[in-house]
Structures are given as structure tokens and as C-alpha cells.
Amino acid sequence: MPFPWLGRFGSVSSGRAGRRRNRRAQQQGQGEDLVPQEAPQEVAERRQRRIGFGIGAVFLFVVAGVVAFGYYQEFYKPPRVWAGSVNNVEFTMGDLVSRIRVLQGVNRYQGGRVNLSTVPFEYLQNLVNAEILRQQSNALGINIQDEHIEAELRRQFVPTAATGQETDPGQLEREFRDNYSGYLTATGLSDADFRVIVEEKLAESALAGRLSEDIDLRQDHVEIRWIQLSVDGDILIGDVANRLANEDFVRIAQELSVPSQFADPNGYVGWVPKGAFPDLDETIYGDESNGIPALSVGAVSEPIFTNEAYYLIKAISPAEERDLNNIMGHKLLQETVTAWQRENLLIGTQAGTVRMNFNSRLYDWVTDQVFVTAPRIDRPTPVPDLLPGVPGIQQGPGKGP
Question: Is domain 79-159+169-213+331-372 given the CATH code 1.10.4030 in the classification?
Fold first, then answer.
């Protein structure tokens, strides 16, 4: 061979391209020899880490989903769940909480507390009753205007000047604003919230005025005493009934009967018209349709159980036609308004135009929300009555204890 060294680079016929291919092949072979091979254990550990990261990511996703769902269920959804409706007007749970907070603020300002064991459902009924009355106001001839609300606010919060004292209209206006503003601040209410309450109370008062026209000012009464016991007290009414076999009714009433605006410390209630205490009517007046006789004079009734209290009643005088006095007339009127509300609520429920939605879970949510925002008022201040008295019922003769 004339050029023996060419054998190291291939034949002349291979050309430059062949030589380049050979060099690249040699370089790749040398590079592969330099790369270390991974141990199987390292490969397995890396795979396990990837699996762990994947499981962790899935777990975090699930936790985030649970938290988001819990937030939706506890905070976002409940306020938007419908609580009740009257025709095309709907109330949500958030509306119910807001209205209970209004009641809560007013009660705390007056020195009372909201009973959360009964208020949520009762106030939902109040919302529905107020809306029913609002929708029937035109038919009843009730029209509450802004000037009526303003006049009622001034009745409540404008200070009353002493007889013969000169008044400065500007000073009275300033005192009215200060009194009203202080009341809103103390109760945590807005002006709009309180005006809605005043409007509903004025409408209810107007309804009472309409219904009072159908109440006879002279009707049958029965004179009674009672022993009234608290439903959540420790005294069993059956034990009290057993004591009456050997002990005086008045003495036991003095000892055990809870204080009441309708009875004196001796348990004397006086002359009671039918309808003033609907739960007691059957016992006092009897029920001819069911063959139940009226309570005999001098007799003591069997224990009577109501939602408000437990009673034992003693008849003092038989039924007698008498004039309504202010106390019993007002009580009878209140019961008449309640009966109107109950009747219209029943009619609307049966017709499907009135609906309410309430259960234990929603009740728990409502009470929790109201409890958290309970106002803190150290020294309650009295506030004027929100519902003015209804005129037209005169004081009649009564018999003392």
C-alpha cells in the first residue's frame, strides 16, 4: 500500500463524510462510558417520593374541598336559604337573623333578653304575619305613610315639657335627635330597621282598631281565682291539686302562684270575658258541643296545661253580663288580633300562598348567629311602648277580691 497510514482513517473511497461519522461514533461511545449507572434503590426511592408527593397533593385537595364545602354549608348557603314566603315575597334565613337582632337590641335596651329557645320560629311567624297584613292593608283600609312613622317616632322620643313650662322648638328638635340617635346606638339598630318595626306596629295597631269594632263592650263574664305555675318550675301541679283537698285555695295561691298582671297576690283575677284566655275558656265556660259543663261556683278545675303556664282555677261567681274593663278589654283585643293572624296564616298555608321552612339544623344556625352578635348593654334604659293603646274600651265596674 503506497500510503499505509490511511488505513487508520478508512479507505480513500469513504471520503470525509465517512471519517466524520466514525469520529462521532467514537465520541458517543466514550461519553457513554463516562455516565454512571443509577442504583436500583435510588430509582425506587425517587419513585416513592413522586408517589408521596402525589398522595399529599390529593390529600391537600380533599382538605381544601372539605373546608370550602363546610364554608359553603355554614356561612354562604344558610343566609340565602328561604325561610318563608307570602305570595311572591320571600324571606331568607339572613333576613330572619337580621330581624331577630332587631328584637334582641330592643329587648336588651329595655332590660330583657331574647328567649332563643322559642324566638326563632315565633319571629319567623311574625315576619310572615306582618307581610300578610301588609298585603291585605288596602282591603282593610290601612295605609301607613312616612309621616305616620315620623309622628310615632316623635311621640316616643320627643321629651315632654312640664305643665306651664315654655319650650324652645329648636331645643326640642335637638333633644329628639339626641334621644333617637342614642337609642339606635345603644340597640345597634339602623334608622331603616327601626322604622320598619314602627311601621309594622302601627299597622298592627290599626288592625286592632278595625277588629275592636266587632267586640261587644258588654258581654258575659265569670269571676275567678287561679293558681298559676311556671312551665319550667320545680313545683308539680298535680301535687298542688292534691294539697287543695285539705288546704285553702287563697293560702296556696299566696304561697305558690307566680306573679301576673291579671291576678293579685291572692290569686284573684276577677271578671273574665270569654276569649280573653282562649286556653281556659273550655274550663270556665264549658263546651256544649262536646258535652263539657261550665265550672261550678266554688269548684276547682282539674290541672290545665298551656304553653305559657299551668293553672288551677276556682269559680267565684256564675256567668254575668258586664262591661269590659280596660285590662280585660285589651287582653281580649290582643287575642282577637292573634286569632286573625292565626286564621289568615292557616288560610294561606292551605292555599299554598304562605310557606315556612324551618328545621333543627337551620334553628341551630340562626341561634348561633344571634348569640354571637348579642349586644352588651350594662344599664338598660326604658323606652316608650311601641304599640299605642287602642281607644274605645271603657273602664267598667268590677268586683274587688
Answer: yes
Q: How far is the C-alpha of 304 from the C-alpha of 295, rounded, in Å?
A: 13
Other Cβ atoms less than 10 A from the Cβ of 158: the count is: 16
Please check whether residue 183 is in contact with residue 156, taking contact to mean a CB–CB distance below 8 angstroms.
Answer: no
Name residue 322's beta-bridge partners: 219
223, 262 contact by CB (below 8 A): no
Q: Which residues of 284-308 are buried (b: 16+ CB within 10 A; e: fewer)?
A: bbeeeeeeeebbeeeebbebbeeee
Residue 250 DSSP symbol: H
* Closest by CA position to 389, among listed 130, 208, 140: 208
pTM, whole model, 2 decimals? 0.69
Domain ranges of the chain: 4-30, 42-76, 79-159+169-213+331-372, 220-323
**Pairing mode, strands 309-323 and 304-305:** antiparallel
Give pLDDT tens digits for 246-303.
999 999 999 999 999 999 999 999 999 999 999 999 999 999 999 999 999 999 999 9
Distance CA 379, CA 62 (A): 50
Among the four given CATH numbers 3.50.50.60, 2.40.100.10, 1.10.3120.10, 3.10.50.40, the one describing domain 220-323: 3.10.50.40
Nearest to 124 by CA among 380, 384, 315, 354: 354
What's 271-326 look like in SS3?
EEECCCCHHHHHHHHCEHHHCECCCCECCECCCEECCCEEEEEEEEEEEEEEECCH
Annotate 362-395 with DSSP letters as a single string: HHHHHHHHHHHT----SS------SSPPPP----
pLDDT tens, residue by residue, 133-142: 999 999 999 9
Q: How far apart are CA 271 and CA 277, in angstroms?
A: 12
149 and 200 Cβ atoms separated by less than 8 Å = no
